[in-house]
Amino acid sequence: MSMSDAAIRQNVENELAWEPSLRGCRIGVTVDAGVVSLVGTVGHYADRYKAEEVAKRVAGVRALANELEVKIPIPGERSDADIASAAANALKWNVSLSPFEIKVIVTKGWLTLSGQVNFGYQKMLAEGAVRFILGVRGITNEITVKPAVKAEDVKKKIEAAFMRQAHLDAKDIEVGILHDTVTLKGHVHSWREKDDAAQAAWNAPGIAHVDNQLFVEYS
Predict the structure, then answer these.
(1) Cα–Cα dist 132/139, whole Å
(2) What percent of the chain has pLDDT over 70?
(3) Which segments of the chain does DSSP mark as H helices, in order?
(4) DSSP assigned state of 119
(5) Which CATH entry fits the domain spanning 5-70: 3.30.1340.30, 3.40.50.1110, 1.10.10.10, 3.30.450.20?
């Protein structure tokens, strides 16, 4: 039985209120045909990311629009130089990223990352390493991934990864590859499965972008 928009909205609001790290944030929730929109302001970029993660774990949510605006309170404001230094250290001391030369540019609290890594998951790891730095307002990830050898080999590796994960129904997921981009189509039974499928694709060599078009179809 499908859940009403009113019930989904109430559950998302309750889940956001239940999350300790978001207490004090002013987040509004609207729902239309299972599509959730988050509106309002938060004090840190990490709060914006966390609110999205919280909303995605609520049953009935088919899609999500994160329209939260980051307004950093005065005590949390930092100079671009301070943020750049903290970001450079976070990347330098991450064992999975230390071999790579990743550059950081900060403009009015907005970070731009550039450089090259071997795997797509390392690109996402770099973004995660700087996401929780105080004073960050947003992130643009321009890191490139070293090209893979053959797209068809990468496709087979991703499909094999799906088969190894018991909770992912590989027959319901279609994998397409064009250059360094993976497109996932089909349906899964939860946002967790959707995210796990994307993560499996990110782990493949040479993948720089994952276009996750999987539809969440609740039982």
Answers:
(1) 11
(2) 97
(3) 5-18, 45-56, 80-92, 120-131, 151-164, 191-202
(4) B
(5) 3.30.1340.30
